[in-house]
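debug: dumping io for the single-chain case to check the tokenizer round-trip. Nothing else runs in this session.
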Amino acid sequence: MKLYDYFRSSAAYRVRIGLNLKALTYEAVPVHLTRDGGEQLKADYLAINPGALVPALDDGGAVITQSLAILEYLDEMHPQAPLMPRDALGRARVRSLALTVACDIHPLNNLRVLRYLVKQGGLTEDAKNAWYVHWVQEGFAALEVLLSASGDTGRFCHGDTPTIADCVLVPQVFNATRFGIDLAAYPTIMRIDAACQAVPAIAAAHPSRHPDAE
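debug: decoded output
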């Protein structure tokens, strides 16, 4: 398998976590999102993913895009260390938690959106950062309630083993910390993130340990 990724991409980070939790070997193919105008915009990568986004997973010539689709594919093809609960209600809850981040927070703060806000929208760096903080805080406030109010929350987002929800949560916490956001208002999120970081397979996916890290 080949994973086209960027060390600081939260979507690619999710997939690295999933691959590591399943102990799957893969070839990392870095696609630098800021170097030389953005390698994701070059013709050779657009032939792989016309959406010009990372990650993309090449599994024997079959290319899958979108991090959550990749994670569910990996879970179906490699059932060891399952990333989804066995029951339908549990799977729905895990998807809901993951999508709270992947749909409600991440797209609004994606690199291309932030660039557009500055270059075409005329926002200052301070205004751009305020935009970022607002959407993280709004999304995390909802996620904190979803996690803290449910008896299905365990050591991790759902029970006591990592799921796709944790694969998605960890990179968002990393990004929020990188932007200097105070996360004290989200104790359940921070407790779960700490539990995740104590798992070697998750810690190994951290951007600082990526071969292309700057």
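debug: round-trip ok. The first strand starts at residue 2 and ends at 5.
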